[in-house]
Amino acid sequence: MGSRILPLRRLSHTLLVIAGAALGLTAEQAAQPKGIDFNREIRPILSDNCFTCHGPDEKQRQADLRLDRPDGVFADRGGYRVIVPGRPAESRLYQRISAENRLARMPPPAANRTLAPQQVELIRRWIEQGAEYKPHWSFIPLEETPVPEVIEGKWPRNPIDRFILSRLEKEGLRPSPEAARETLIRRLSLDLTGLPPALEEIDAFLADRSEDAYDKLVGRLLASPRYGERMANDWLDLARYADTYGYQADVDRDMSPWRDWVIRAFNENLSYDQFIVWQLAGDLLPGATREQRLATAFNRLHRQTNEGGSIEEEFRTEYVADRVHTMGTAFLGLTIECSRCHDHRYDPIKQRDYYRLFAFFNNIDESGLYSHFTRATPSPTLLLYDEGVEARHEELKKRIAQAEAGLAATRDAARRRFDEWLRAGAKDVSIPQPVAAFTFEEAAANKTANSATTGLPAELVDGPELVEGRHGLAVKLSGESAVVCKGSGAFRRTEPFSFSLWLRPSVEQARAVVFHRSRAWTDSGSRGYQLVLEDGRPAFSLIHFWPGNAVSVRAKERLPVSAWSHLAVTYDGSSRAAGLRLYLNGLPMELEVVRDNLFKDIVHRKEWGDADVDKIELTLGARFRDSGFKGGLIDDFQVFDRCLMPLEAGALAGLSGLQPPQEELFAYYLNRHDAGYRSALTALQRLRDEENNLVNDVREIMVMKELPERRPTHLLKRGAYDAPGERVEPGTPDAVMPFPSGLPPNRLGLARWIVDRRNPLTARVAVNRIWKLHFGRGIVATMENFGSQGQPPTHPELLDWLAKEFIDSGWNVKALHKLIVTSAAYRQSSQSGADLEARDPENRLLARGPRHRLEAEQIRDQALAASGLLSRRIGGPSVKPYQPAGLWEESGTDKTYVQDTGEKLYRRSLYTFWRRTSPPPSLTSFDAPSREVCTARRETTTTPLQALVLLNDPQFIEAARVLAERLVRERGPDLDARIVAAFRVLTGRRPEVREREILRRLYQEQLAYFTSHPGADEKYLATGEHTRDRALPAAEVAATAVLVSALMNHEEFVRTP
Question: In terms of Cα–Cα distance, which of 489, 475, 503 is closest to 640?
Answer without folding.
Answer: 489
